[in-house]
Design a protein that fits this description.
CATH topology: TIM Barrel
Strand order of the largest sheet: 1-2-3-4-5-6-7-8
Bound molecules: SN-glycerol-1-phosphate
Helix content: 25-40%
Radius of gyration: 16 Å
Number of domains: 1
Number of strands: 8
Shape: globular
Largest sheet: 8 strands, parallel, barrel
Distance between the termini: 34 Å
Length: 238
């Protein structure tokens, strides 16, 4: 199993070099737009392309990532809503456990279902604690997983959840307000979690402006993920 993407994120976090990932949902992105989309992503100086979604049609991720790879040298990291979204054309996989939820399907069941594929795969597998925070909207992660998000004001629960994830051996913690969230994860919560973990922190959901991006970085996000704002605005820039 390779470790290069995780190491890159860990080293950047130590050096306080902030990273950006653009999230593409194969269900919402047509293949013929990929040349234009990849050049926009490269212009933004993003470090990674994340690929995934909560409701992706079975089987389309494989062709999507294969085509994406023809248009860019940026590392492609799978951020799957379920195990059907795995493909060897990507470089790495965020091996997510939804730690904020109590649904065994997303704590362990999907992970077990992915093993027959992963046993024969060269994907870099990155154990990631995924924590859903209330972003003020009924996010698709919430609908899909049928779990309750942690309230933004309950930072002590978010901290304890993140630290439990770290003790369980997760290599990254991902604070997720949900795609298209009205409210991104707030600064207090990001900094409270960051203070208590010694592994890199990813933050995503509802980040639309440079101010929100910089505030997430300033409060301790090592990597920020942006999807909807990029998808909705062809001239999107930070
Ligand atoms: C990644 O789901 C997010 O964590 C992306 O959220 O689509 O709101 O940028 P947006």
């Amino acid at each position: 199993m390779r470790k290069s993407i995780l190491e890159f994120i860990q080293k950047a976090a130590v050096k306080k070099e902030k990273l950006l990932a653009i999230l593409l949902d194969p269900d919402k992105t047509s293949l013929d737009k990929l040349p234009e989309i990849t050049s926009r992503i490269e212009n933004l100086k993003a470090n990674f392309i994340f690929v995934g979604g909560s409701f992706v049609e079975n089987g389309i991720t494989d062709l999507f990532v294969k085509t994406l790879k023809k248009h860019t040298k940026l590392p492609v990291v799978l951020f799957p809503g379920d195990f059907s979204q795995l493909t060897n054309h990507a470089d790495a996989l965020l091996f997510l456990s939804l730690l904020s939820g109590r649904n065994p399907e997303y704590l362990i069941e999907q992970q077990i279902k992915s093993v027959p594929f992963l046993k024969n795969s060269s994907l870099e597998i990155i154990p990631t604690g995924y924590i859903l925070i209330d972003g003020g909207t009924n996010s698709s992660v919430l609908k899909m997983s049928n779990t309750k998000p942690i309230l933004q004001e309950n930072s002590s629960l978010a901290v304890d959840t993140a630290v439990a994830g770290m003790y369980k051996g997760k290599q990254l913690i991902y604070l997720e307000a949900g795609s298209g969230a009205k409210n991104p994860v707030n600064s207090e919560l990001i900094s409270a979690v960051k203070k208590h973990i010694s592994i890199p922190l990813i933050v995503g959901g509802g980040i639309k402006t440079k101010e929100q991006l910089n505030s997430a970085y300033a409060n301790g996000a090592d990597l920020v993920v942006v999807g909807t704002a990029f998808e909705n605005n062809a001239s999107f820039n930070f």
